[in-house]
Design brief:
Elements: E1 3-9, H1 13-22, E2 28-31, E3 48-49, H2 59-71, E4 75-77, E5 80-85, H3 89-99, E6 107-110, H4 111-117, E7 125-131, E8 135-137, H5 139-152, E9 156-158, E10 163-169, E11 172-177, E12 182-190, H6 196-202, E13 211-223, E14 232-235, E15 241-245, E16 248-252, E17 257-258, H7 268-279, E18 285-299, E19 306-309, E20 316-320, H8 330-342
Parallel strand pairs: 1-2, 1-12, 2-9, 5-14, 12-20
Antiparallel strand pairs: 3-8, 4-8, 5-7, 6-7, 10-11, 11-12, 13-16, 13-17, 13-18, 14-15, 15-16, 19-20
Helix pairs in contact: 1-5, 1-8, 2-8
Length: about 375
């Protein structure tokens, strides 16, 4: 039986991108539980690249990924507005202070400039933080890009390979799928998203407390239809975001409901809350809910991602806990992780990144 250098569990954006990077230097097996890669979080993304999303400690990963995403044609600039009401000026000021030294491009806007960018804006919304660099991201295209690179570099992708048992003996991991297939590798990489802690437990490793949180998105038909060039609009208090998409509106109530790892489905209450919050922002008439979906965003306890070898168990590595920012940070995150796993020197993309922020050993 072939013994691979690396077996990566999970072929969403995380696993696919890491497989593509590692395969330049090592043999890689990529295992996916579903019928096709990207079924869960990757396939349900709201699809934007936003410099401040995830907080100041995520900004370096986002900015370091920007050039790659732009050069490869995966970004289409849109701009973003964090909007606030009269009583939320302090929150807008705090946002500016929090991100002012991160390298993100942000500026304050008052009511007149805000109303020019959001038609039908209700009068109570009086200020905003403007982020001009925010862009739509071609999630499917980026995922396919990494899968193609992985294939070209010899990665062995296996779908319908849900892992049921994990054992390690004489420096080699043996993974058994529910269908009875067995796979062997020197290093096991946990890129299992919402299932990350489950995989760790199966391997006899202490879980890190990576919690899946459900996020709901709905597609609405509204009157008037939103301008195609309208920015992404986010509430400074974290209660909604929305953007135009092909003449419709993609809207989320910015929910974060704890969930078991599962095939997430939207709840009617979250859909109703999203619509109610939108109608408190703009005077558009909601004509129909055309689609609704939910995905699981998985966070470590400190809401930072986890990249690198587990400090307690040899040959086990983490590439998990990437919340809602795993797609927009993929190029830099995967480059950094592959360098950590392979013992390679940093390059121009990763030289400024502080790997200790994302190291598994921070959990003690």
């Amino acid at each position: 039986m072939t013994v691979y250098d690396f077996a990566i569990v999970g072929a969403g954006m995380a696993g696919a991108s890491l497989a593509a990077e590692l395969a330049e230097h090592a043999s890689v097996l990529l295992l996916e539980a579903e019928d096709a890669p990207g079924y869960h979080a990757t396939g349900r993304s709201a699809a934007f690249w936003e410099e401040c999303y995830g907080g100041p400690e995520i900004v370096p990963l986002t900015l370091a990924s920007g050039d790659y995403l732009r050069e490869q044609g995966f970004l289409d600039r849109r701009g973003a507005l964090y909007v606030g009401r009269e009583g939320e000026r302090g929150a807008l000021d705090a946002f500016m202070d929090r991100f002012g030294d991160t390298g993100a491009t942000i500026e304050r806007l008052e009511r007149h400039a805000l109303a020019e960018r959001i038609p039908g804006l209700r009068s109570k919304w009086t200020g905003a933080v403007w982020e001009p660099a925010c862009a739509d991201i071609d999630v499917a295209g980026l995922h396919a890009h990494y899968l193609q690179h992985a294939k070209t570099r010899g990665v062995d992708l296996r779908t319908r390979a849900r892992i049921a048992q994990v054992e390690r003996e004489d420096g080699v991991w043996t993974l058994a799928s529910e269908s009875g297939e067995q796979f062997r590798a020197a290093t096991l990489v946990n890129a299992a998203g919402a299932w990350a802690d489950r995989l760790a437990e199966a391997a006899g490793i202490r879980p890190l407390g990576i919690q899946p949180l459900r996020r709901t998105v709905v597609q609405l038909r509204v009157d008037p239809a939103p301008p195609s060039d309208m920015p992404l609009v986010l509430d400074i208090s974290g209660r909604f975001y929305f953007k135009p998409e092909a003449g419709r509106v993609w809207l989320s109530p910015h929910d974060e409901e704890p969930s078991e790892a599962c095939d997430a489905a939207p709840e009617e209450l979250a859909v109703a809350e999203a619509i109610d919050r939108l109608q408190g922002v703009v005077d558009w008439r909601v004509e129909a809910v055309e689609r609704r979906w939910a995905g699981l965003r998985s966070f470590a306890p400190d809401r930072r991602p986890v990249y690198g070898y587990d400090p307690r168990v040899e040959g086990f590595a983490w590439f998990a806990g990437q919340g809602g920012f795993g797609i927009q940070t993929a190029p830099a995150a995967v480059r950094l992780a592959s360098q950590l796993l392979l013992g390679l020197e940093r390059d121009a993309m990763t030289r400024s990144l502080d790997a200790s922020l994302y190291a598994p050993e921070r959990f003690g």
